[in-house]
Design a protein that fits this description.
Blueprint lengths: L10 H10 L1 E10 L4 E7 L11 E5 L6 H5 L7 E10 L4 E7 L6 H8 L5 E4 L14 E5 L1 H13 L6 E7 L15 E4 L9 H9 L8 E7 H14 L7 E7 L8
Parallel strand pairs: 7-8, 7-10, 8-9, 10-11
Antiparallel strand pairs: 1-2, 1-6, 2-5, 3-4, 4-5
Helix pairs in contact: 5-6
């Protein structure tokens, strides 16, 4: 179904939104595996987007004086990787994790409903597919959305390897080419400083020559994976793209 773009907003607020940001409208909200939610946003045709990029979504109205007076402006933006985007229909799809801490992003994902307007920055980020002999993906649940978009974009003749850590098998997202990935169960263990993921990458039977690695997730874990690839496998650092999404006790890493 083709969705018409949101009509231009009126007044000073509307002109500001249309000049600086993208406006769309929520079409669908549904449960995804684990603590994830699919959220489809329509009315945004013609976006320039590369698989792996993210948007910064406004979970509160930054044009409202009340937002600034209340001090909520610092929590106004939340970064979400794009699961998929159809430029023809103008529908952008997110897969948002419902974090247990119930911060502004989690509260938005829990309460947003079809028909509501959303405002976000244009897609951005350099964590995208690069030409390489093969692609290697390593990360946990927070990286799965990004990996899904990138795997979908990789050509069928482009070899892909990967290790994806999950708490339980039923929480797996339906990643493209899932059969080519190694899935490792974490159980109740923490995803922070995860030796489970590092060991899973260490066990991968990779070609002798380096490819391009996309390593995303908890900050200390992704650094450990990069250290393995560079020190133990002899990969050039430029061949290992790292995207730290989170780490315990630290906010706003992206």
């Amino acid at each position: 179904m083709t969705v018409e773009p949101s009509p231009p907003a009126r007044g000073v607020r509307g002109r500001l939104l249309d000049r600086m940001f993208v406006r769309g409208r929520v079409e669908d909200v549904r449960q995804a595996p684990g603590r994830m939610r699919w959220i489809s946003i329509g009315g945004v045709p013609g976006l320039e987007w590369k698989p792996g990029q993210h948007i910064r979504l406004h979970v509160v109205d930054i044009t409202s004086a009340r937002t600034w007076i209340s001090g909520k402006a610092r929590d106004a933006l939340r970064t979400y990787s794009v699961w998929d985007y159809d430029a023809t229909s103008g529908v952008l799809e997110l897969c948002v994790m419902d974090h247990e801490d119930a911060g502004p992003g989690a509260r938005w994902a829990r309460t947003v409903r079809p028909g509501e307007e959303v405002v976000f920055n244009k897609p951005e980020g350099s964590f995208v597919l690069r030409p390489a002999p093969y692609h290697l993906f390593a990360g946990e649940e927070t990286a799965s959305v990004t990996f899904g978009a990138m795997l979908r974009a990789a050509g069928p003749d482009e070899p892909a390897y990967g290790a994806v850590e999950i708490a339980e098998p039923e929480r797996r997202l339906p990643l493209p080419r899932a059969e080519e990935l190694s899935w490792c169960r974490r159980g109740d263990a923490s995803a922070a400083s995860s030796e489970i993921l590092v060991d899973a990458v260490r066990r991968l039977d990779l070609p002798e020559e380096p490819g391009c690695a996309y390593v995303a997730g908890e900050a200390r874990t992704v650094q450990a994976v990069r250290a393995h690839l560079v020190r133990e496998r002899g990969w050039p650092r430029r061949s290992v793209l790292v995207k730290p999404y989170w780490t315990p006790g630290r906010r706003g890493m992206d």
